[in-house]
């Protein structure tokens, strides 16, 4: 939809209409003045529709900076040309409004074509970047395939970097622990009698090797800062990209019967419960990954049948090569003059989004705090079984039933997707992922911390500031916000029991 009424389509449609009008007037013997009137009216209407679409319906959410650059530069050139023509008395505005409108549109069309050609040929690189793309890299070979986990982090001081469109999204170093997971502490299978241990399952939001500290490590600090005599541990078995298939394998091969623990946390983002078995490996050039329909029986089978179809998930480069690539591609955290000062439409759009979000947020909060239950949208467990499929639901069921039979607490936690947080406010209802987790938690009589309402209390600007730019993941502030709220939830559920075993 946005493509059909984008800025660049306006002059093109107008040009097509002009061509049609010329042939029509010539065939009918009409005056050229009629042609100008008709075309001026049509082009003015196009501009109006485009403006209304932008302001009221915000149809340009998917446009790149380059699109706005073309539009604004074209308009500036048109204005300059018209000022010159007016001062030279070539156009009398009072008598030639229709002609002026027509000249505006077709001058813009001509300018836009020229600008597009120049930008594609590499001009204006200092002003607009349209070909930088995404640059992701690790500074060493650091991933080995693992038939239980899917993959295992290996090596010390692994640097992970991602840059998108001249902006560094993150650039950090992390060190895997003794079990190959992202944590500041090594894991011990046994625990002391005054310790209450959580086993955490999650994906990249929980592993968060791109952050200074993932939430499982941070929550352990938060929750142990009080005066409670019981010590709480959070052992994270989260890995980037994995879901229920990997969790099931890890749980029954690395945890059950091996690690002492008192509770598990399934920190679920989006489609985690739908994911197939995820594997990765690295060579001297790249890290490769893929979701597999079935887990390989051994590494020989993996090498023979699965490796060749895996996609490159990041490059392997030493630190000096990474730094040189950043310089060559002009990746920088510095502000871009054009983006910050000339993209008036982008700034207006952001303001409109913020205004719209705050209005809808108040409506959602009113409904939520009046015990809005989404009764018409409640999901049955049979429907969820059907959606997940027998195999994946069976995996989930086996994990939870093992915990129930062995008197282990079960927690579900939703990890908010920023766009779904916004959509919840716009639609004034919960997302399907929330409803699924709510239904599953009720079915198993498990604890469920739904983080979406907490994130939906935030202002639009604060919400934006809690997530990485050019990436769907939360940043350290977003992760810490989740941690603080989840800590309070756990305290209410567990501290009352005061049980350490």
Keywords:
Rossmann fold; alpha/beta; six-stranded mixed beta sheet; five-stranded parallel beta sheet; 501 residues; 18 helices; disordered N terminus
Tell me what you see in this structure.
By secondary structure, the chain is of the alpha/beta class. The protein folds into two domains: 9-120, no CATH class; 134-334 and 373-495, SGNH hydrolase (Rossmann fold). Helix content is 49%, strand content 15%. It contains 18 helices and 13 strands. The strands form three sheets. A six-stranded mixed sheet has the order 5-4-1-11-10-9. A five-stranded parallel sheet has the order 7-6-8-12-13, sandwiched between helices. Helix 7 (244-255) runs parallel beside helix 13 and helix 11 (344-369) packs across helix 14. The longest helix is centred in the first third of the chain and has 26 residues, at 32-57. Mean pLDDT is 80; it is low at 1-7, 57-67, 128-132, 334-343 and 368-376.
Total count of helical runs of at least 4 residues? 18
Q: Biggest sheet, in brief?
A: 6 strands, mixed
- Total beta strands: 13
Helix percentage: 40-55%
CATH C-level class of the largest domain: Alpha Beta
Task: Offer a quick outline of the entry.
This protein has 501 residues and is α/β, with parallel strands linked by helices. The chain is built from 18 helices and 13 strands.
């Amino acid at each position: 939809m946005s493509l059909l009424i984008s800025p660049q389509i306006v002059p093109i449609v107008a040009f097509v209409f002009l061509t049609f009008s010329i042939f029509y007037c010539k065939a009918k013997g009409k005056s050229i003045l009629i042609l100008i009137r008709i075309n001026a009216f049509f082009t003015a209407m196009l501009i109006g529709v485009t403006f209304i679409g932008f302001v009221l319906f915000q149809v340009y959410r998917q446009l790149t900076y380059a699109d706005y650059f073309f539009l604004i530069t074209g308009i500036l050139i048109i204005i300059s040309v018209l000022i010159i023509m007016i001062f030279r008395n070539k156009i009398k505005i009072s008598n030639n409004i229709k002609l002026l409108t027509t000249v505006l549109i077709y001058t813009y069309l001509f300018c836009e074509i020229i600008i597009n050609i120049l930008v594609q040929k590499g001009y204006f690189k200092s002003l607009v970047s349209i070909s930088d793309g995404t640059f992701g890299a690790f500074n060493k070979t650091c991933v080995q395939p693992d038939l239980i986990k899917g993959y295992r982090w290996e090596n010390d001081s692994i640097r992970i970097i991602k840059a998108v469109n001249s902006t560094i999204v993150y650039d950090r170093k992390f060190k895997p622990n003794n079990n190959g997971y992202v944590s500041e502490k090594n894991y011990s299978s046994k625990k002391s009698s005054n310790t209450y241990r959580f086993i955490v399952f999650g994906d990249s939001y929980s592993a968060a090797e791109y952050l200074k500290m993932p939430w499982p490590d941070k929550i352990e600090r938060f929750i142990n800062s009080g005066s409670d005599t019981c010590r709480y541990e959070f052992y994270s078995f989260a890995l980037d990209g994995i879901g229920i298939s990997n969790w099931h394998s890890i749980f029954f091969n690395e945890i059950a019967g091996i690690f002492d623990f008192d509770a598990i946390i399934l920190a679920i983002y989006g489609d985690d419960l739908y994911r197939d078995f995820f594997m990765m490996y690295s060579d001297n050039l790249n890290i490769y990954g893929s979701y597999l329909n079935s887990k390989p029986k051994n590494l020989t089978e993996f090498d023979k049948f699965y490796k060749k179809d895996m996609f490159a998930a990041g490059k392997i480069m030493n630190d000096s090569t990474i730094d040189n690539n950043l310089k060559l591609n002009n990746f920088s955290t510095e502000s871009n003059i054009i983006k910050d000062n000339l993209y008036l439409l982008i700034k207006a759009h952001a303001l409109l989004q913020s205004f719209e979000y705050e209005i809808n947020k108040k409506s959602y909060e009113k409904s939520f705090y009046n015990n809005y239950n989404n009764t018409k949208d409640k999901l049955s467990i049979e429907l969820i079984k059907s959606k997940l499929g027998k195999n994946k639901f069976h995996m989930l069921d086996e994990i939870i039933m093992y915990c129930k039979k062995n008197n282990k607490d079960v927690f579900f936690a939703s990890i908010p997707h920023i766009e779904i947080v916004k959509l919840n406010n716009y639609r004034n209802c919960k997302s399907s992922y929330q409803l699924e987790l709510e239904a599953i938690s009720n079915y198993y009589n498990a604890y469920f911390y739904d983080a979406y309402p907490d994130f939906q209390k935030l202002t639009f600007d604060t919400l934006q500031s809690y997530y990485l730019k050019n990436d769907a993941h939360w940043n350290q502030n977003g992760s810490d916000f989740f941690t603080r709220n989840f800590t309070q939830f756990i305290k209410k559920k567990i501290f009352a029991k005061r049980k350490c075993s």
